[in-house]
Write the C-alpha cells for this entry.
Amino acid sequence: MRTSLEWIRSMVPELSCTAQEYMDAMTLSGSKVEGYEELDADLEKIVIGQIEKIEKHPDADKLKVTTVNVGEETLQIVCGAPNVEAGQKVVVALSGAMMPSGLLIKPSKLRGVDSNGMLCSKRELGLPQEEVRGILVLDEDT
C-alpha cells in the first residue's frame, strides 16, 4: 500500500520525524516498508512564468517566440502550442529540468532561434489531461 507521509502527518499532527525515521519505526513495529519515493525531488527547475511578449517565428508558421518572465530572469522560449497568449501565467521547465518522461530540458535552437526552456502542457508534466490542447494556463492569481 502506498501512503503519503504528509497525509499521515495530517492525521497525526504531533508526528515530527524524517521519512527515513518513519520508515525505520514502521520496520521495527513489524510493518514491511518496501521503499520510499520522493515525488517532488526535481521540482526546483519547474517554475511559474508569465508570458510578456509573443512574436511570430521567422522560419516556421506554427512556432512562436515567447518572452517569459520567470521571476529572476526573462527567457526566450520557442513554443508551438496553439493556445499561447501574452499575459498568461504558465508552467515553465527551466534548463536542467528532468521531465516525468525522462526528457532533459536544455538550451537549444528551434529552426535557428534560441530557446531556453519549455512551456509545459499537462501531458508533459505527467498530469491527467483534458481535451484542451496546448500549454497549461494557470489562474491569474497563481
Q: What stands out?
A: The helical segments are 5-11, 19-28, 122-125. The CA atoms of residues 93 and 118 lie 5 Å apart. The chain is about 15% helix and 25% strand. The chain has a mean pLDDT of 89.
